[in-house]
Amino acid sequence: MTAIARAELQRRSAELQTLLMKGSSAQIIAAREKLRLSLVELQELGYWQDNPDEFQIHMRLYRVAAKLMFNPPASMSGLGKKVQYIP
Fold first, then answer.
1. Which of 4, 39, 43, 76 has the largest count of CB atoms under 10 Å?
2. Domain span at residue 26?
3. Within a domain: residue 77?
């Protein structure tokens, strides 16, 4: 059971990495949630107690995905704003 869950985790991790490079926010959110479910499943199986380093690697990816999903509102993006020169 653990081997199947690990394989699924690896697949979901790779999918999230790919989407971070060229996916939409909705795709990234969905892939991040799938990764979270895999992490929880392996936690319930007790896998992370024996492999804390691997857990940290996957959690780092999970956290990075959250930071990169932020889309600033138009008022913060600077697009369409006129440059004001203040002497």
1. 39
2. 2-70
3. no
Rounded Cα–Cα distance for residues 47 and 20 (Å): 26
What are the DSSP E strand ranges found in the chain? none
Q: How far from each other are the two terminal CA atoms of the chain, in whole angstroms? A: 68
Q: For 38-42, which contacts have Cβ atoms below 8 Å and span 24 or more sequence positions? A: 38/5, 38/8, 38/9, 38/12, 38/13, 39/9, 41/5, 41/8, 42/2, 42/5, 42/6, 42/9
Whether 79 has a pLDDT exceeding 60, the answer reads no
Say if residue 24's pLDDT is above 50: yes
Please determine, for residue 85, whether its predicted confidence score (pLDDT) is greater than 70: no
> Which residue type occupies 49?
Q
Q: What pTM was computed for the model?
A: 0.74
- Domain total of the chain: 1
> Each residue of 37-60: pLDDT tens digit?
999 999 999 998 999 999 999 999
